[in-house]
Write a structure and sequence with these properties.
The protein contains six helices and no strands. By secondary structure, it is mainly alpha-helical.
Amino acid sequence: MHRLFTTLVALSIPLAWADEEPWGKVDLQAAAALHAKACTACHSRMYGKDGSLIYTRDGRQLSNKLELQQRVAACNASVSAGWFPEEENSVAAWLNKHYYKFEN
């Protein structure tokens, strides 16, 4: 009986995870600070002002949440921000909430 219970619990874990957003649990408040510290200066150099034009310009290259998540990870590596994957996911979720608004 114990083995059956353990097997059922183990099988249900991936199903529960699959229902979450692609970035899992996030901290949007921390994400805003991370973004301000690591992203704004670079984006401002590229697009002027506060750099937010990078997210709203015509012809932007991202079309879904997975691509956004991958772009944040690439930028993290590019500027050596040193974020953990959970922080990358928080920033991706924050960007989606404030700029991209992807459903998928």
